[in-house]
Design a protein that fits this description.
The chain is mainly α. It has 24 helices and no strands.
C-alpha cells in the first residue's frame, strides 16, 4: 500500500464533496418554507411546480454541458489545471445562489453550479482512475462515490440544522453559502496534486510521468520500482498502438473516430447507459424531492429534514462498503444485485404511498419510510460508487476524457428528464410515476448481466481486450517468471534512459 497515493486520491475527493453537497442541498432548501416565502412562490400550484422542477432541470442541463466541455478541457490543459478551473466555477456559482435577491438570479446560479458539477463529476473519477494501481482501483475510485454521499449527508444535516434558525432568510442562504467550502478546499489543495502520468505520456513527457509513477506506486520491497516501470511500459506501448490507429489528431477528429469504431461505440453505449440506469433507479428524484415525499406520507416540520439527513448519511456508509466490494466481488455482480434490490424497494414504497399516502396510518407510513431506507441500502451499496469506477476505466487513455464525459452526461440527461417532470407528475399522476423506477432497473439488470464485461483487477490498458481491441502489452496473464524476464528488459531498455533525463 502506498499512502501517498491514497492521500492524493482522497485530496481530490474535495471534488466529490463539491458534487455531492452542491447537488443535494437543493433537497434541503426546497424543504424550508422560508425559501418559497422569500421568492413568493406557492409550490403547490402548477407555476410553483414548474419553478421547483426548473431548479433541478437547470442544474441537470448545466451538468450536461459541463460533461461535454470537460472532455475538451482535460486534454487541452491537463487534468490538474482542469480541476482548478472547475473549482473556481463552482465557487462563483455558489456565491451567486447564496446572494440571490430574485428567483431568476438563483436559477442562473443553479445553472452555473450544474455546469461546474458536471465538470467535477467527470474529472474527479477520471483523475483517480489514472493514478490508481489496478489491484486497488475499485477501492480508490470508489472513494468518489463514498465522499459524494458524504456531501449528500452534510447537505441533509445542514438543512435540518438551518430549520431551527430564527432568521428565515438566513435559513436557506446559509445552506447555499456553504456550497463554497468544498470547491474552495479543492482549489487550495490542488497545487499539491501531481499531473496524471497518462496525460503526461500522451503529451510526450515520459520523464516526468515516470517520476510521478515511482512516487505514486512505490511499495516496500520494490527497490527497483518494478511496478512503476511496468506501468509506464504498458502506457507507452498502448499509446503508440493508439497513435498508429489514428488517435491524438485533435478533439474534433477524436470524436469522429470515437463514433466510427465499433468497439468504441460499444464503450460509449455501455458508459452512457450505465449512468442512465443509475438515474433510472429513481435515486435523484427520491433524494431531491424526499422532503416532499415525506409530506406525502403525512410527515411535516423538522421530521422530514431529519429523516432526509439520516438517509443520506446511511447512503455514505453503504457507498464505503460498495467501494470495498468492487476489488473483491467485481463490478458487474454488485451492480446487477443492486438494481434488482432498488426495484423491489421502490415497488414497496410505491405500494405504501398508493395505499397510505396522505392518511394518518402510522404503520403504513412507517413502512413507506422503511422502503426508502431499503432503497438507499441497495443503491448506495451497489450502484453509486460502482458506476463511476466502471465508466472511468473502460476507455483508453487517448479518449478517456471524452468517453468518461460522454458517460456521465448520461446521468444528467436522464436526471433532466426525471427531475423536470417529477413535480408535475406528482401533482397529476401521483404514485404511478414511480412505476418507471421499478420496470427500467429490472431490464437494466438483465442487460448488464448478459452484456457488460467484468474489469476487476485489470490495468487500464488491459481492459481494451474486453471490448475486442488489441492490447499492446498484457501482463495480466503472465507468470512470475515471465514478468521477471520482462522486467530485465525494462531495466536495460528505453525506460532506463528516463533516469538519466530526470
Amino acid at each position: 500500500m502506498n499512502y501517498y497515493n491514497f492521500l492524493i486520491v482522497y485530496l481530490v475527493t474535495f471534488g466529490s464533496l463539491t458534487y455531492g453537497y452542491n447537488s443535494a442541498i437543493i433537497g434541503s432548501v426546497i424543504g424550508l418554507p422560508s425559501f418559497f416565502d422569500y421568492f413568493h412562490i406557492n409550490e403547490k400550484t402548477s407555476a410553483g411546480s414548474r419553478i421547483t422542477g426548473a431548479t433541478n432541470g437547470l442544474f441537470a442541463g448545466g451538468g450536461l454541458l459541463g460533461c461535454w466541455f470537460i472532455t475538451w478541457l482535460a486534454d487541452k490543459v491537463g487534468r490538474k489545471r482542469s480541476i482548478q478551473i472547475t473549482a473556481s466555477i463552482c465557487i462563483v456559482a455558489a456565491a451567486i445562489q447564496a446572494g440571490s435577491v430574485h428567483i431568476a438570479m438563483f436559477l442562473v446560479g443553479r445553472f452555473m453550479m450544474g455546469f461546474g458539477a458536471g465538470m467535477v463529476n467527470v474529472i474527479t473519477p477520471l483523475y483517480q482512475s489514472e493514478i490508481s494501481p489496478a489491484k486497488t482501483r475499485g477501492r480508490m475510485v470508489g472513494s468518489h462515490g463514498f465522499i459524494l454521499c458524504v456531501g449528500y449527508g452534510l447537505a441533509g444535516w445542514t438543512g435540518y440544522g438551518c430549520y431551527f434558525i430564527d432568521n428565515q432568510v438566513a435559513q436557506w442562504r446559509l445552506c447555499l453559502a456553504l456550497q463554497v467550502v468544498p470547491p474552495l478546499g479543492l482549489l487550495i489543495g490542488s497545487p499539491f496534486l501531481p499531473e496524471s502520468p497518462r496525460h503526461l505520456v500522451a503529451h510526450d513527457n515520459q520523464d516526468k510521468a515516470f517520476s510521478i509513477l515511482k512516487r505514486l506506486h512505490h511499495v516496500p520491497g520494490d527497490d527497483e520500482d518494478v511496478l512503476a516501470r511496468e506501468e509506464l511500459y504498458q502506457i507507452q506501448k498502448q499509446l503508440d498502438l493508439e497513435k498508429r490507429e489514428g488517435w491524438r489528431q485533435g478533439w474534433v477528429k477524436g470524436w469522429i473516430l470515437l463514433f466510427q469504431r465499433k468497439s468504441y461505440r460499444k464503450r460509449l453505449l455501455f458508459g452512457f447507459l450505465l449512468l442512465g440506469l443509475v438515474q433510472s433507479t429513481g435515486c435523484l428524484v427520491i433524494n431531491n424531492y424526499q422532503v416532499l415525499l415525506y409530506n406525502g406520507l403525512n410527515l411535516y416540520g423538522s421530521m422530514p429534514l431529519m429523516l432526509y439527513a439520516l438517509w443520506d448519511t446511511w447512503a455514505a456508509i453503504m457507498n464505503f462498503i460498495n467501494a470495498l466490494l468492487l476489488d473483491r466481488v467485481g463490478r458487474i455482480p454488485v451492480m446487477v444485485v443492486g438494481q434488482i434490490g432498488c426495484a423491489i424497494s421502490v415497488a414497496g414504497f410505491t405500494a405504501c404511498l398508493a395505499r397510505y399516502g396522505g392518511t394518518d396510518n402510522k404503520l403504513g407510513n412507517g413502512f413507506g419510510v422503511f422502503f426508502l431506507y431499503l432503497f438507499v441500502t441497495f443503491f448506495g451499496g451497489s450502484m453509486d460508487a460502482s458506476s463511476y469506477v466502471y465508466s472511468s476505466e473502460i476507455f483508453p487513455t487517448s479518449i478517456r476524457a471524452q468517453g468518461a464525459g460522454f458517460s456521465v452526461s448520461g446521468l444528467f440527461c436522464f436526471s433532466l428528464i426525471y427531475t423536470m417532470s417529477a413535480p408535475v407528475a406528482f401533482n397529476s399522476i401521483g404514485w404511478k410515476y414511480y412505476l418507471i423506477f421499478i420496470i427500467v432497473p429490472l431490464f437494466g439488470a438483465a442487460f448488464m448481466y448478459t452484456c457488460y464485461p467484468e474489469t476487476k483487477g485489470l490495468a487500464l490498458e488491459e481492459i481494451a481486450a474486453k471490448f475486442g481491441d488489441e492490447v499492446a502489452v498484457d501482463l495480466s496473464h503472465l507468470s512470475l517468471e515471465e514478468r521477471a524476464r520482462l522486467d530485465k528488459t525494462l531495466f536495460s531498455g528505453d525506460i532506463m534512459e528516463l533516469e538519466h533525463k530526470a
